[in-house]
Amino acid sequence: MNDRExxxxxxxxxxxWYDEGRVGEKAEEAAEFSKKYLDGGxxxxxxxxxxxxxxxxxxxxxxxxxxxxxxDHGPALMPREVENEITHNILxxxxxxxxxxxxxxxxxSEKAREDWRPWYREFFSTLRSLGxxxxxxxxxxxxxxxxxxxxxxxxxxxxxxxxxxxxxxxRDVWAxxxxxxxxxxxxYYKYAKLLGWDKVRLVTFFDKEFEKYGTPxxxxxxMWRWRYxxxxx
Amino acid sequence: xxxxxxxxxxxxxLALGSPWIMFDSLLEYVKLREALGEKFFSLPxxxxxxxxxxxxxxxxxxxxxxxxxxxSIFEPSDAGMYVFSYFKRGDxxxxxxxxxxxxxxxxxxxxxxxxxxxxxxxxxxxxxPEEVRRLVSKVSSIGKERNIGFGFVKEVExxxxxYEWGLVRGGEAMRPIPVRYLKYYEDAAYMPYKPPYWSGESxxxxxxxxxxxxxx
Lengths: 233, 216
What we know:
The complex is a heterodimer. Helix content of chain A is 47%, strand content 11%. By secondary structure, chain A is an alpha/beta fold. In chain A, strands 3-2-1-4-6-5 form a 6-stranded mixed sheet, covered by helices on one side. In chain A, helix 1 (3-20) crosses helix 8, helix 2 (23-35) crosses helix 3 and helix 3 crosses helix 8. Chain A is globular and about 45 Å long. Chain A starts with a helix and ends in an 11-residue tail after the last helix. Chain B has one domain (2-170). Helix content of chain B is 14%, strand content 33%. Chain B is built from 3 helices and 16 strands. Chain B has helices at 23-36, 47-55, 129-136; strands at residues 2-10, 14-16, 62-63, 66-67, 73-75, 82-88, 109-116, 120-127, 153-160, 168-169, 172-173, 177-178, 182-185, 188-191, 203-206, 212-214. A 4-stranded antiparallel sheet of chain B has the order 5-8-1-9, covered by helices on one side. The chains are: A alpha/beta, B alpha+beta. The A-B interface holds A 110, 194-195, 211-215, 217-218, 220-222, 224-225, 227-229, 231-232 and B 16-19, 81-83, 85, 107-114, 144, 189-192, 200, 202, 204, 207.
């Protein structure tokens, strides 16, 4: 079976699941839930499948001109081809949105792959500096027991975190993507073929933070072309 | 120095950390193990290895600063790739008493190993046949995750051949070649082109098995 046939087969499966799993109803509920947090809120979009689904739900079901925050990890962690795809996808789904893109200051260096603590510091201080009261994130309960324990709404010190697609399963997410033709980075399909649709995630590439999950080793084989691409800069 | 064809016959599937295994890095690894003995396994960091690696002489011919040694050719070529997921507890004995397995030194790892069930791995190189034979006879396994049984070598064959395919074969690069050494290249990417390949140094190189034309 070639790649196109493989994808077509799965498309059929997910489209069937869209009806059977009542994904449309779940999406309507997620849109209703999101409305409460859009006043003074921002939709945080990594560009991954979950956040793109959330963005589409918010834009089509709530407000077209919603503020969208996207964090650019920099070339060492996110190849420029993938990053360009992400920004293009965000614009395609939310053309009227106010898009805020902030870039990681160490994202050009090998250090970004070795030590992720500065990333966390800079990322959270950036979120704080944006001054939004609500942050909508594409976190799902099914992803991990820790995420499930966080609940659908989390009160942080400086903002409230809301998770509109908290109850979506991986099937629901892919069904929504195929039903509404939501663009996601093409690396998903490459990884899904090896890992399975349930396990595929968009995370930073060649990142030591994910070494314990074996992700950099997968990247070495599937994304070899981008391992040193940031040296070009 | 003779053109050589080296074939590793495998007992178990081959796990990969990149799409290719480089023949010069295999020989360099064996030389390094010979030079360091047991110390190889207890170095404080990989930093001193780089200097030593660079000073080691391996029995291969060079063109400019590149060894004439190809990247791996997997056979059968349509074996496909698969992922093997497993928990790895570290390669050291657990001490008695309470051990934190969630973080720190004894942290459990959940690994995803990309492997390919190939039967043979073929290389082309130009070097000293006897010394190459001696070195490859010491290679009991190749690739990644050898500690859990991947890439075990059943037999290795070194043949002297009449063609030098370690660098270019029929107009195709057989290994990464810096584009500054090329008149023409079909595809290029930043990658290391000489051992130690793990050092993180890279240069814009022609991608193995794509069309190239060498500068005179």
